[in-house]
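User: I'm new to structure prediction. If I give you an amino acid sequence, what do you actually give back? Let's try with this one:
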Amino acid sequence: MGVTGDKALRLSVERPASTASGYGMLLVLLLVLVAAPALAIWRGNAGDGLGAGLSGLIGGLVFLFLAAGFYLLQPNQGAAILLFGDYRGTDRVTGLRWTWPWMVKKKISVRIHNVTSDKLKVNDLRGNPVEIASNVVWRVTDTAQALFDVDDYREFVNIQIESAVRAIGSRYPYDDYEHDEKTLRGDAEHIADELRVELQERVIAAGVTIDECRLTHLAYAQEIAQSMLRRQQAQAVVAARQTLVEGAVGMVEMALDQLSAKNVVELDDERRAAMVSNLMVVLCGERDTQPIVNAGSLYQ
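Assistant: Good question. You get back a string of structure tokens that encode the predicted 3D arrangement of the chain. For your 300 residues, that looks like this:
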């Protein structure tokens, strides 16, 4: 399910914020810290008590004003700058930063997030209940959308992961023994790619990019697991028998052709059929055969 119509309109778009390096402002702060007391002492020594007090007061206010504008940004971290609720841009420059003290700084991580979903019970395409869990690697690429277009972007992503897994799980059968269609078990790469596309369409409104999706758990639900296991075993036995018979027929055919080509023995139709039967028993039997040695004539 994609975002269409009015939902496709982005309410917010990230843009660079107008901020300053904190290191230059730190130098100014240190100058104020030194200059204000020095000026107050000088005015006090000159006998101007009022001027000394004003110098100290103004210096203290300037110091507090400058100190209130500092903030730190770590690598892969951003800060959305707001002026009385109005979005003014996002600062992604790491280190010590400074902006006007009345600006509100809302920090947000743009690091890679790794989420493993809970095991979900989903009915596959044929209605069989299966358990599915997935691992999703995602990150915030538009901080404005993540902060202002959804209420809680982390919770939003988690809910959309569950919805996408349920949607994908219901589109495919768990298994197809005839190999005529894609399945959850047999086409893991295709399922992972489709899950990533499905989830990306769901979370794009939150400014989130999905980097990778993988199914971490896939199994029949407990209530049908034993029945499906017996079915798989039966089909595996049939497939093995079919392969065994095909191989045995080829070996018997090769043996008879070589016996005839090298004139080792001449066999009429009846004894030819008996040899075929014996060879098939030897080749297809589940137990080791016990040969009977005929010490007399070949036809006795």
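You can read the tokens as a compact description of the fold. Here is one thing that stands out. The chain has three domains: 15-109, 113-220, 230-284.
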